[in-house]
């Protein structure tokens, strides 16, 4: 993406979001538990990403998106963290990557040891590191959406939703 395109997107995002307001929205509210805040944010970000990707599902095919990427400099490989040992990351088409990712994240959210749903049950010690991976991988989906599918999202009037959910 060239600099002028980046500038246009930045200006558009500021116009739709309001400059500086997001910094306040994402701050941990006083008196709230950090892990609860991260869990809520991760589940919401997961849901928003899932919904937005569904809007390009018919356009993001193995034929049109044979590599999960955000341009020629950024290709993302899938690493299956559920396998024992060191599994090597593999290159998969973008829709397969997103499917594997959403399945993996749903499994993390459904894991009561990671995302406890009952009061008084503590979060696991590795919760922050798992949430970090969730956010990092969801960021890749947004990078792919912006780079490969922004024009389609613009054509169906979903650019504001894309900008406000990211």
From TrEMBL:
Gene3D superfamilies for the chain: MOB kinase activator (1.20.140.30)
Residue numbers binding Zn(2+): 60, 65, 144, 149
This protein's UniProt keywords: Metal-binding, Zinc
The keyword Zinc belongs to this UniProt entry's keyword annotation: yes
SMART domains per record: Mob1_phocein
DNA damage is among the record's keywords: no
Domain of life of the source: Eukaryota
Protein name as catalogued: Mob1/phocein
Taxonomic source organism: Conidiobolus coronatus (strain ATCC 28846 / CBS 209.66 / NRRL 28638) (Delacroixia coronata)
């Amino acid at each position: 993406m060239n600099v002028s395109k980046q500038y246009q997107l930045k200006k558009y995002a500021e116009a739709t979001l309001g400059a500086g307001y997001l910094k306040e929205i994402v701050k941990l509210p006083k008196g709230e538990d950090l892990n609860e805040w991260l869990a809520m944010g991760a589940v919401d970000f997961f849901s928003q990403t899932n919904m937005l990707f569904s809007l390009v599902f018919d356009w993001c095919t193995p034929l049109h998106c044979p590599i999960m990427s955000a341009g020629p400099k950024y290709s993302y490989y899938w690493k299956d963290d559920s396998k024992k040992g060191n599994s090597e990351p593999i290159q998969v088409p973008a829709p397969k990557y997103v499917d594997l990712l959403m399945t993996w994240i749903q499994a993390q959210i459904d894991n009561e040891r990671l995302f406890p749903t009952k009061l008084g049950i503590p979060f696991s010690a590795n919760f922050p590191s798992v949430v970090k991976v969730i956010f990092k991988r969801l960021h890749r989906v947004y990078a792919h959406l912006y780079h490969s599918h922004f024009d389609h999202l613009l054509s169906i009037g979903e650019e504001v939703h894309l900008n406000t959910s990211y």
